[in-house]
Amino acid sequence: MTWPSDRAGRVSLMSASPAPTRQPSTPPSTRAWLNKVPEVTVWFWIIKILCTTVGESFADWISVDLGVGLLNTSLIFTVVLAAVLVWQMRLPRYNPFPYWLTVVVLSVTGTLYTDILTDRYSVPLALTTPVFAALLAVVFGIWYARERTLSIHSIVTLPREAFYWLAILVTFALGTAAGDWTLELTGWGPGVSVLLPVALIASIVVGWRLGANTVLSFWLAYVLTRPLGANLGDWLATPRAAGGLDIGTAGTSVFFLAAILATVVYLAMARPDVTENVAIPARTAATRPSRERLMHAYYGLIALAAVIVLVVANSRPHTALAAEQEGGGAVEQLTPRQATAHFPTGDITALRTIVLDTLDIVRRGDQTAAASRITDLEAAWDDAQPTLQPMDATAWDFLDAEIDRALSAIRDSHPDVTLEERALGALLTTLAA
């Protein structure tokens, strides 16, 4: 597929917009508006990352922390998504409030759809990631075949806007799957996991500066902001003992929703991102097709380098057999998602509540109360064994070993707060998946 340029010559990835001209006439049967999306300025990328962070933390807060459940949360947000899409698509031009509300809801919904496939139906991320990538390619292919452009500066008809929002939904689902798969392959912590999407986005900016196709660069960066925002949200919400900042999913959601609201209010008042109709010029010699082909090869090398990094990280000990059981022998090391995927949400939430309580007590310095509360964890886990172990024996063994480490740390004759927090934090990270 040939990716069309946004304009002749080199343009800015942060502010890529041709000079306003009169939009070419559209077929009489097609309803046309002023452009329905914002200008791609630095504000666009800031608020996009804020939205993706909310998509991760808000979905987790409602489905897990509030106990609504993954399926119920997905149904709720599907209805909300339908409502905000109707509102957004009935408008004749870009308006920051409905536009960014739609992006936020799409972020949450796309995350939930991927999580349902992974957590509820046990579809491996190694399958969902390429499937969503292929689906996105199909959406782009049909969009381009019909409209002859994938530029976001051309969203001036109902069909183009429909393709645009469908592509956005798939990018969120793909970004979620790819980001989770990366963590599954590497075992990286929440802080380290932010670095890969940051490096890839920086490489795309370099490629665009050197003459890469603007539309291609935009959509690549758009997909990569999803794992960046999700990993950032995980880093903020994860307990300090597990390498995070311990703000929690509720705190992270509130903070970023407030930041989004403040940014949207500014955009509505200052209007730095409003763009009128623009014509998409035909390709000219100034676009330098040879330079674009060279940059496509550059992007291919970047993708190859990312694959090599993932392969090397995957080969490290986190995928090996580790973690000794009480009775001796090895327990297979699993990712948090693998360890909890087949167990009922209610059981995992109950265990997580006890671990959170124990961690808070440890931080207050009340060792006696911590030892008492951790006994509740042991009792709950033993009571659940007849039900949980047959569901997934490997995951049960893995969680059993993690719980044993937490029990040992709390009950040590000379307890070390650092070791207690580390053991509880690791267990909490697993149960929070």
- Please mark out the parts with pLDDT under 50 across 5 or more consecutive residues, or reply none: 1-32, 277-286, 318-331
Globally, the shape reads elongated
Walk across the major sheet and give the strand order. 1-2
Count all strands and give the number.
2
Oligomer: single chain
Helix content: 55-70%
Radius of gyration, Cα only, in angstroms? 24 Å
Count of runs of 4 or more consecutive helical residues = 14
Question: What summary fits the major beta sheet?
Answer: 2 strands, antiparallel
Tell me the span between the first and last alpha carbons: 38 Å
Mean pLDDT: 79
Structural class: mainly alpha
Strand content: under 5%
Count of the domains = 2
Order of helices and strands: HHHHHHHHHEEHHHHH
Secondary-structure map:
Layout (H helix, E strand, L loop, with lengths): L41 H24 L4 H21 L5 H25 L4 H23 L10 H29 L8 H15 L4 H24 L10 H23 L18 H26 L6 E4 L5 E3 L3 H5 L4 H20 L2 H22 L4 H19 L5 H16 L1
Antiparallel strand pairs: 1-2
Helix pairs in contact: 1-2, 1-3, 1-7, 1-8, 2-3, 3-5, 4-5, 5-7, 5-9, 6-7, 6-9, 7-8, 11-12, 11-14, 12-13, 13-14
